[in-house]
Design goal:
Layout (H helix, E strand, L loop, with lengths): L1 H9 L2 E8 L28 E6 L10 H8 L6 E3 L7 E8 L5 E12 L3 H32 L14 H5 L4 H5 L9 E11 L4 H16 L8 H11 L8 E4 L7 E4 L14 H8 L1 H12 L3 E6 L2 H13 L9 E3 L16 E6 L14 E5 L4 E3 L10 H14 L32 E2 L31 H15 L9 E2 L2 E2 L4 H26 L14 H6 L9 H6 L6 H7 L3 H12 L7 H17 L15 H13 L3 E3 L31 H4 L4 H5 L6 E2 L10 H25 L15 H31 L1 H5 L14 H17 L10 H16 L12 H7 L1 H11 L13 E4 L20 H9 L7 H14 L3 H9 L2 H7 L9 H12 L17 E10 L12 E7 L2 E2 L3 E2 L6 E7 L4 E8 L8 E10 L5 E10 L9 E5 L1 E2 L6 H8 L22 H20 L7 H9 L4 H10 L14 H17 L9 H20 L5 H14 L7 H5 L2 H6 L9 H12 L10 H4 L7
Helix pairs in contact: 11-13, 13-19, 18-22, 23-25, 23-33, 26-30, 29-30, 31-33, 35-36, 35-37, 35-43, 37-40, 38-39, 38-40, 39-40
Family: Belongs to the RAB6IP1 family.
Pfam families: dDENN, DENN, PLAT, RUN, uDENN
GO molecular function: guanyl-nucleotide exchange factor activity; small GTPase binding
């Protein structure tokens, strides 16, 4: 048993298998192949059997007869005649066991002549039955048609064969479907296969093909088949890591197999990626690769089983260091198609003949790849792979370097189209697809499947050569004789000049290595800092495994906060995948057991990257191409050139006098028929292997040098690579790319130690200056370049702000790590901060806690019991809503002095420890390095980073206890310069905390400033507010009864844009005059002022019970007291909508209105032209509805000459005019109006206008008339109606009645100006915030 187990670890192949037709059981239809009775007997599938497998069994890999038989011949037994193509085919397959172990199989399928008369007779009988049934069905259907049309039964003669068989003899495909026992020779498929532990595709293919050739064309003196099979099963070993083996195959001379080292290189992969990119191309394969990374369902389809396996194995191999964790069936037999209904991620391969029966269950999550037609249909909302354009460019250059075709995608990459669902001319499984365009003219390629053979039965190798080929070759020869180089033109007659098969295999290995290194390089750069965000457990292995599913092992929020913003759609979904979770679990398991092999290689590559760029987290300004291809290629070539061992050539093991022979000797084997082999001989393990399993009877040629053990050689190679990386890293450091802390040895002199540290401190200071300057230049944009700050740093312009801030966090970690006495965690900065916090807490233990000056999160916890008690005493209802659906609200009115009729806004405490407590209260951060980054971002956004660090470093006693004398933080002059550079960042505004931690629950304080008039200061109605920002919108938040100040908690809203305030108009005195509303983010300290200055209530003002207020961010220079004093004063004019109803406000002149309107439109056009991100909708809202916005300017224009005053009743509003105009347009559309000349475009404009006015009037009954006008302007701008509706309005009779002659709407010159300036908005697609539209959709 031990010998067999040891043999399993070193054997090249476990089993040799023969599958085919079992003559004893006869023809048995394959019940798993589906209902194929309508097909001819030659087209049907029949049940195949495993005729023999050798040896009988091995302990480490039990033989699975059903699985092997099903995968060796996935389509069952197939019969053919001489009219078909009978070329042998090869495919591989994989068998996955319940424990996850995989075995690889390699099947060589060929056709043998059927010489058994019973089988031929049975096929002839089935043929006759099929023809009789087909003929009778056609005659019956024809008779029914003739009878129904009045024709007699003699209209046509009956036939014994289908009509198309005799009348369409020119269609060879129809003739091939029928078998004539007299004229045709019957053939049946058979498979010989190897079952191996490792996927050596090339070697298995060569061995099986050579073995088949021995049987097809035997030569005198050749060895028996058993000799070659016995040699492959027992003599050929699997190479140890980092070694190569040479052995002999039948017919061919020799084959070299090699195995990459376990430390330096990627695992073994022997499938040719050259064929993969020739089939799919780079662009569509990247889309397929993205779907696999995000664990979508992937279905591959092809008529060639080898292609299915090639694509599936390639895409999973390129996932390294990750591995596919879900269902993996590259070749799905027909009997297992119900697996496609599984609601789990999978990668499955389906033969194209089964595609007609396929019904996709979850097409929204399915990626469908038709390999033969080169079509990829993608799931919905698939994010782009990070730096996809640069990645594709690098791969395309690599393909060109190795002269590999990029499929047909490289002809026109822009032709990838989306196919509509249900398209009649395309078999469409999904709603969208990415289709590769066809080439120009026929493209010659190697044949990989039976479906590529022509119907005439002529093999592809016998195709006639084009008459131009000889002439072209002579021309090429003449050109070469003239001395003209034809390098790069390696095509003759449109076909690439192919290398010999062995050389092509070596080139494929080089290309495989290069492509896999490029893919690994992407993952190394994307996750170079992943170790910093792994949450290491504080328990033993058993406890961790028990609670594994309920624990968070990775700080996802902090990791995502460091990533470029345009990478977040992909990365946020990928880190939730099972393959990423498995990698993190393996990282944690490495604390107790051996490191997983893939993880060991990945971590080593990251260490090499850090040696190149420095020990800190890696930040590179742009895309970094792969630099490790040459190193691993040298190791590969070394194994191929200097082979470690050669296997002894096969020896004849069958003796003529052997009484145990069960099969005929080789000389008596019938040519073309692969025989069953002798099980007794092939079950015998060689004596030397059973005696000592580690002894391999190899013959080592003199030309091959002896090598050390693989472990010693890998260690030497690793040391060499480390030295190379160190040399590269020192070069990069000299260029300013990386900076590494010096390692000081005990033998260095004190002067040299001081000089080395001084140089490092200077480099840190220089790096700080460079990074702060880069951040300022990027934030200030073109203005900084014009001022001369961008000189010499042009390459840095365009780097994303989030990446620069993450780089600043890395720099702070490097500074705080320099000269550290004892590192307490992964973040030296956070360790220093927590030590400082503990000292301050100890110093302030005797001081009572003032709830008003606590951070909101902590104050709410401290006051929860007290507040609930006071609420019950006062009889108030506390409004607490679930955090996940509605905001949590708490009334803070008890903290407002009762004798004051106006609210007060207490200033937030400006303290380092306060910001620390706010960060510690964030539940989505799990690591110390995550807390440090959140604190840095919060301090930077509050413009307190330099101040906080100055406070932290002022504690000299703490600094001396933690840092050595030569540390950067103890160099006074450099420390002051460092803080000064950070202080310059206060010149620009950052929202790096608000925009990064989008899922954090934050407290918001709302302060309402009503009118000072007693009758308007309070309301009896139930009031509410709804606040919108760049990251979301709240549901209605109830305002506690009688309170003017309250706090609610909600998921991060981003930068606040609008506030909607209203009430239900109930109670004895519901009317309420609101001057201003102030909202403050209690963590970041940002204050937003929302001017109102209007009434809320029915029967007053414009009958509005809700108003939309547009906010403006209060500058940091304005303190709370100044803001409160400003808000207690009524606004000079209102913002919702922007026109006051006070007679003392002077109206602007016509020229002023024209000027304001031009500025408003220009600002909107400038924003829309340069808009880069979705978050800039907030700026558009301000330009539309804010101060001097488009709504305000148009309102002033329409109020000019407006006859609003009436003798009896309330004054008219602009909305009254637009409502009357709508009624006039509706009447004009129903019946012909002689005063209006309409065309089709004008009618469409009128219809759209009436539809919008109806929607606003019916759906927003709580809005006042001015609010409805504001909504109408915004919606008309979105629907491109502003300029188009002016002419119909000017020609309307309502305009003559309600406007004076010198108004904008009646004066021809002013009307033309208004129309022309608004036409510039029609060139852009305007997307409004939901807070503006209130659910009103488009008019289309």
């Amino acid at each position: 048993m031990n010998s067999q187990t040891c043999s399993g670890a070193s054997r090249f192949a476990d089993y040799f298998v023969i599958c085919g037709l079992d003559l004893s059981s006869g023809l048995e239809p394959d019940r798993f192949a589906g209902d194929n009775l309508e097909s001819t007997p030659l087209e049907r599938s029949y049940k195949c059997q495993v005729l023999g497998h050798y040896p009988e069994s091995v302990l480490w890999n039990p033989f699975d007869r059903n699985a092997v038989g099903m995968l060796c011949l996935p389509h069952g037994l197939q019969f053919r005649t001489q009219k078909h193509s009978l070329e042998p085919q090869f495919h591989s397959f994989v068998i996955t066991r319940e424990d996850g172990r995989r075995s690889y199989g390699f099947s060589h399928v060929f056709y043998e002549e059927v010489r058994n008369r019973k089988i031929c007779s049975a096929m002839q009988t089935l043929q006759a039955m099929h023809l009789t049934e087909l003929s009778s069905s056609q005659v019956g259907s024809r008779s029914r048609r003739n009878h129904s049309s009045g024709l007699g039964h003699d209209a046509h003669n009956t036939r014994s064969l289908p009509r198309h068989f005799k009348l369409s003899t020119h269609k060879q495909g129809a003739a091939q479907s029928y078998y004539d026992a007299v004229k045709d020779t019957l053939y049946v498929c058979k498979s010989i296969a190897l079952i191996c532990q490792l996927p050596y595709v090339y070697a298995a293919r060569k061995f099986l093909a050579g073995l088949h050739r021995l049987v097809s064309a035997p030569c005198p003196g050749q060895l028996s088949i058993e000799s070659y099979v016995h040699n492959m099963l027992y003599e050929v070993p699997t190479p140890q890591p980092g070694r190569s083996v040479h052995f002999t195959c039948p017919v061919v001379d020799s084959v070299i197999i090699q195995r990459p080292g376990s430390i330096e290189e990627l695992p073994l992969f022997d499938f040719p990626l050259r064929e993969l990119f020739t089939l799919l191309g780079v662009e569509c394969f990247i889309q397929l690769f993205t779907c696999v990374l995000l664990e979508h369902q992937v279905l591959l389809c092809s008529s060639d089983y080898h292609r299915l396996m090639l694509v599936a194995e390639s895409v999973t191999a390129l996932l390294f260091p990750f591995s596919w964790q879900h269902v993996y069936v590259p070749i799905l037999p027909a009997s297992l198609q119900h697996f496609l209904d599984a609601p789990v991620p999978f990668i499955m391969g389906l033969h194209s003949c089964s595609e007609s029966q396929l019904k996709s269950a979850s097409e929204a999550n399915l990626c469908y790849v038709d390999i033969d037609s080169q079509t990829v249909q993608l799931p919905e909302e698939l994010p782009s792979f990070p730096q996809r354009a640069e990645f594709v460019s690098e791969l395309v250059e690599l393909l060109a370097k190795h002269k590999v075709s990029n499929g047909q995608a490289d002809r026109n990459l822009s032709d990838c189209i989306l196919l509509p669902h249900g398209s009649s001319n395309v078999t469409n499984l999904m709603t969208s697809s990415c289709t590769l365009p066809g080439g120009f003219g026929p493209r010659m390629h190697r044949k990989h499947s039976w479906s590529h053979n022509t119907d005439s039965g002529v093999p592809s190798g016998s195709n006639a050569v084009s008459p131009q080929s000889d002439a072209l070759q002579r021309i090429v020869a003449i050109v070469q004789c003239t001395g003209v180089s034809l390098d790069g033109c390696g095509q003759v007659n449109g076909v690439e000049c192919e290398l010999p098969e062995h050389e092509q295999y070596i080139e494929d290995l080089r290309f495989n290595n290069a492509v896999r290194e490029v893919y690994l390089n992407r993952f190394v750069y994307m996750f170079s800092a992943y170790e910093h965000f792994v949450i290491q457990p504080n328990q033993d292995k058993e406890q961790w495994l028990k609670n594994r599913d309920s624990m968070q092992n990775f700080d996802k929020a902090t990791f995502l906060s460091d990533q470029p913003e345009h990478h977040l759609p992909f990365l946020s979904r990928f880190i939730e995948s099972q393959m990423f979770a498995t990698l993190i679990d393996n990282k944690i398991m490495a604390n107790w057991s051996e490191v997983e092999p893939n993880l060991r290689v990945f971590d080593r590559r990251i260490r090499l990257l850090r040696k190149r760029f420095g020990e800190a987290l890696v930040r590179t300004p742009g895309y970094e191409t792969c630099t490790t291809i040459r190193d691993t290629e040298l190791l590969l070539e070394k194994r191929l050139v200097s082979v470690d061992a050669e296997v002894v050539s096969p020896q004849e093991i069958r003796q003529a006098s052997d009484p145990l022979q069960h099969s005929a000797p080789p000389s008596k084997t019938r040519p073309g028929i692969f025989p069953l082999l002798d099980p007794v001989i092939l079950n015998k393990e060689p004596v030397h292997r059973s005696r000592k399993c580690n002894t391999m009877q190899w013959r080592t040629p003199h030309r091959y040098p002896h090598h050390r053990s693989s472990e010693r050689r890998e260690a030497a190679d690793a040391q060499s690579a480390s030295d190379n990386a160190a040399r590269t890293g020192s070069t990069e450091t000299s260029n300013g790319v990386g900076l590494r802390q010096p390692k000081l040895s005990g033998g260095m002199s004190p002067a040299l130690v001081a000089q080395t540290n001084w140089s490092f401190v200077e480099k840190l200071l220089k790096d700080c200056k460079s990074k702060t300057k880069r951040m300022l230049v990027e934030k200030m944009g073109t203005e900084a370049v014009e001022l001369g700050h961008g000189s010499g740093e042009g390459s840095l312009v365009g780097v994303e702000e989030n990446t620069l801030i993450a780089s600043l966090c890395d720099l702070l970690e490097r500074i705080w790590s320099h000269g550290l006495q004892n590192k307490q965690g992964k973040s030296a900065l956070w360790s220093h901060l927590t030590n400082y916090q503990e000292l301050k807490v100890c110093d302030d233990t005797s001081k009572p806690i003032d709830p008003n000056f606590l951070t909101p999160d902590l104050s709410s916890m401290a006051l929860e019991t007290d507040f609930s008690t006071s609420s019950q005493q006062h009889g108030r209802e506390t409004h607490k809503l679930p955090t996940d659906s509605r905001p949590q609200c708490s009334n803070t009115a008890p903290f407002t002095p009762s004798n004051s009729d106006q609210p007060n806004l207490h200033p937030l405490p400006v303290s380092l420890t306060t910001d620390m407590r706010n960060v510690q209260a964030m539940t989505d951060i799990k690591t110390h390095i995550g807390y440090a980054r959140a604190w840095v971002r919060l301090s930077l956004e509050k413009k307190l980073l330099s101040r906080h660090l100055h406070t932290l470093l002022s504690d000299s006693a703490l600094l001396r206890s933690q840092y050595k004398r030569y540390a950067f933080l103890r160099c006074e002059d450099e420390k002051e310069q460092f803080l000064y550079h950070l202080l310059t960042l206060n010149a620009v505004e950052y929202f790096c905390f608000t925009n990064t931690y989008t899922g954090t629950i934050l407290p918001y304080r709302v302060v309402i400033f009503p009118s000072r008039k007693t009758s308007a200061a309070t309301t009896s109605a139930n009031s509410w507010v709804t606040i919108s920002g760049t990251l979301g919108e709240t549901s209605p938040v109830p305002i506690p009864r009688g309170a003017l100040e309250f706090v609610f908690r909600h998921k991060n809203l981003g930068i606040l844009t609008t506030l909607r305030i209203g009430h239900d108009n109930c109670g004895p005195s519901p009317k309420w005059m609101v001057e201003h509303v102030v909202v403050r983010n209690e963590v970041t300290g940002h204050m937003y002022k929302f001017p109102c200055g209007r009434w809320l209530g029915r029967g007053i003002d414009d009958d509005s019970t809700e108003r939309l207020l547009v906010g403006e961010l209060v500058p940091c220079s304005v303190d709370s007291e100044e803001l409160v004093e400003t808000c207690r004063t009524p606004p000079p004019r209102c913002h919702s909508p922007s026109v006051p109803r006070r007679s003392q406000d002077a109206r602007p002149s016509v020229a002023e209105i024209q000027h304001m309107l031009g500025d408003a439109v220009n600002s909107i056009v400038k924003l829309l032209y340069h808009r880069k991100h979705e978050k800039e909708r907030s700026m558009l809202t301000l330009l539309l509805c804010g101060e001097t916005g488009l709504v305000y300017c148009l309102e002033q224009a329409f109020l000019t000459g407006f006859k609003s005053t009436r003798l009896f009743g309330r004054n008219l509003y602009l909305w009254d005019y637009f409502l009357r105009a709508k009624e006039h347009f509706e009447a004009a559309l129903l019946e012909t109006d002689p005063d209006m000349t309409r065309n089709s475009l004008e009618e469409q404009v009128l219809y759209c206008y009436c539809h919008l006015v109806d929607q606003i009037e019916s759906s927003r009954r709580t809005l006042g008339k001015d609010g409805k006008f504001q909504l109408l302007v915004c919606l008309c701008a979105r629907e491109h109606l502003l300029s188009r509706m002016l002419r119909p309005l000017s020609a309307c009779r309502v305009t003559l009645e309600m406007y004076e002659e010198q108004s904008f709407i009646r004066n021809p010159a002013l009307l033309t100006f208004l129309q022309q300036i608004l036409e510039s908005l029609d060139e852009f697609d305007i997307v409004l915030e939901n807070s503006l539209t209130q659910g009103i959709g488009g008019t289309h």
